[in-house]
Amino acid sequence: MAAAPSAAVPTLEKADFLKLQNGSDIRGVAVAGVEGEPVNLTEPVTEAIAAAFAAWLKDKKKEEASRHLSISIGHDSRISAQTLQDAVSRGISSVGVDVIQYGLASTPAMFNSTLTEDDVFLCPVDGSIMITASHLPYNRNGFKFFTSAGGLGKADIKDILELAADIFKNSSVEAYARNKASASVKRVDYMTVYTSNLVKAVRRAAGNIEKPLEGFHIVVDAGNGAGGFFAAKVLEPLGAITSGSQFLEPDGLFPNHIPNPEDKVAMKAITQAVLDNEADLGIIFDTDVDRSAAVDSAGREFNRNRLIALMSAIVLEEHPGTTIVTDSVTSDGLSTFIEKKLGGKHRRFKRGYKNVIDEAIRLNSTGEESHLAIETSGHGALKENHWLDDGAYLMVKVLNKLASARASGAGGGSRVLTDLVEGLEEAAVAVELRLKINQSHSDLKGGSFRDYGEAVLKHLENSIDLDPKLRKAPVNYEGVRVSGFGGWFLLRLSLHDPVLPLNIEAPTHNDAVKLGLAVVAVVKEFAALDTSALDKFVQVS
Ligand SMILES: O=P(O)(O)OC[C@H]1O[C@H](O)[C@H](O)[C@@H](O)[C@@H]1O
C-alpha cells in the first residue's frame, strides 16, 4: 500500500525486501504452516512491491504522464493467489495506476497482454504482473513482471525491491486513499484472447484449415496448475480428441504431482496417460505454463535435451543454419545433433531462461541470426513470437508439425516428431548432484557463498589442467566443463541458491564415477561444502 506500517506489521529493512529477489523473479513464503518457513510475502509487503512496480512504470513512462497507465494481474492455481491478487491490486491503485485482473492465467499470457492491440480487452496494458512461484511447493508464491520490452531483469527487480522498502517505511494512509480513489479495478477474460491467438497460429500454419488436428488424440497433464485451458481452449477447437487428459483442474495443493516437466514423477504420469489412452501425443506444463514437454505415442519423453533437439529440428527446417542458444547443462550429443545432423549452430550459454533469451537477442543484434533460445528446464522462446518465454507456444510449434505432416500425406501419430530427433546421441548415464554450501561454516571466513563457490571452481579448474585424462571445454560460459572417459561434467554455481550443481553424463556408470572422482578430489578440501550426494554416487556398488 503504499502500506502504512502499523503495530501489527513488523518493521522491515531494505535487506528483508532484497531477500525476496530470485534472479529476475520475486519469490517468498505466502502461506503459514511449514516449519522453518515463516511467511515473508505478507499482504503489506506485497502491496509495497506492487506499488513500487507501478511507480517504477510511471517513471519509465513519464512522457505519457497525461494518460492513466494500466497494469494487468494474473495468477496461477496457488492457494494464496486470491489474497495476493487483492494485495497487488491495492498496491497498484495506491499509486493511481489502473488495475486489470485476469484471474487464473499463464505467465506468457501476461507478457502477451502488453503487446496485444485490442480495445475491447483494454489492451495493450503498460505493465503486467504474474503471481506465481512456478513449480515450488504450495506455501510459496512470487511475482514476475513484464512490459512490452519483455520480462524485467535482475537490476530492475533490485530497484523495485529497494523502492518497495522505502514505500513500506514512508507511506501515509492519506496519500494511499487519495491515489486509490483515482484508479480503477476491472476484470477481463484475457485468456480468451491469448488462447484464440494460439488456435489461429496452428490454423494459419496448416493453411487455414479449421480443424487441422481432427483425428489426433492428444492428452494434456496440467499438474493442477494453470495450464488446463490447453485441452478445451486450444486442442479441442482445432479438432483434437483430449479424453484421458488429467489434472486440468486448478488445485494449489498440487495433490497429484509437481507441475514440472523436469520432474521424473510428473513425466511418468503423462507418459502413463499417453500409453493408457493409446494417444498420439502427451503434453505437460509447469504451473504457470512457461515450460512444457511432450511424450510421443510410444511413451518416449521429449523433455530436457530431447525437447531441445525436437524444437531445434523444427526451427532449423524453417531457418536453415540458425543459431540455437541453450543453457549450460545441455549434452555433448545435443551439440553434435544440432551442428552435424541439423546444420545449425549451437551456442551453449548459461543456465537461466532470461540469460538464454537475452543472449539470442544479443546475437541477432550483432548480425548472428538466432531464432530459438531454450533451456533443458523446458523454458523456450522463439524470435517469431517476440522472444516470449512460452511453454504453450512451444507446443503450438509441435502441433503445427503434426498437422502439416499429415496434410502432406505422412503417416499419422507422432511418428514425424520421433523421426525428427533420430540420430540424437544420448548418454546412458545422466545425473545432476547438488552440493550445498553451508553458509554459516567457519571455512567461509565471513565471505559470501558466491566467493566460496568461485574458489572451489578455480581450484577445480587448476587441478584439471594437471590431469592428462581430462580436457576443459574450449568454449564455456559458466562454471567448469570438462570432457573425459567418453563423457563430460559441469560444475557451476546455482543461479540463486548456495549450491554447486554438478551434472555428469557418461556412457557407463563406471565412467561417470571416474568423472565424479575427479571432482571429489578437489571438493573434499572445502569443508563448508556438503559433498554427501557426490560421495554416495562415486561409491561403486
Ligand atoms: O542454477 P539452478 O539452481 O540450477 O537454477 C536454474 C533455474 O533457475 C530458475 O528456476 C530459472 O527459472 C530457470 O530458468 C533456471 O534454469
Average pLDDT confidence is 94
Number of helical stretches of at least 4 residues: 17
Shape: globular
Bound molecules: 6-O-phosphono-alpha-D-glucopyranose
Radius of gyration: 24 Å
> What is the β-strand count?
23
Estimate percent helicity. Answer: 25-40%
Supply the helix-strand structural class: alpha+beta
Largest sheet geometry: 8 strands, mixed
What amount of the residues lies in strands?
15-25%
Gap between N and C termini: 58 Å
Family: Belongs to the phosphohexose mutase family.
Enzyme class: isomerase
Keywords: Carbohydrate metabolism, Glucose metabolism, Isomerase, Magnesium, Metal-binding, Phosphoprotein
EC number: 5.4.2.2
Topology:
Blueprint: H1 14-18, E1 21-22, E2 25-29, H2 43-60, E3 70-75, H3 81-93, E4 98-104, H4 107-112, E5 127-131, E6 140-147, E7 150-151, H5 154-170, H6 173-182, E8 185-187, H7 190-205, E9 218-221, H8 229-235, H9 264-276, E10 281-285, E11 292-296, E12 301-302, H10 304-318, E13 323-326, H11 332-341, E14 345-348, H12 353-365, E15 370-374, E16 380-382, E17 388-389, H13 391-407, H14 415-420, E18 429-437, H15 449-465, E19 471-472, E20 480-484, E21 487-491, E22 499-506, H16 509-523, E23 529-530, H17 532-538
Parallel strand pairs: 3-4, 3-5, 4-8, 9-10, 13-14, 13-15
Antiparallel strand pairs: 1-2, 2-6, 5-6, 6-7, 10-11, 11-12, 15-16, 16-17, 18-22, 18-23, 19-20, 20-21, 21-22
The structure holds 6-O-phosphono-alpha-D-glucopyranose.
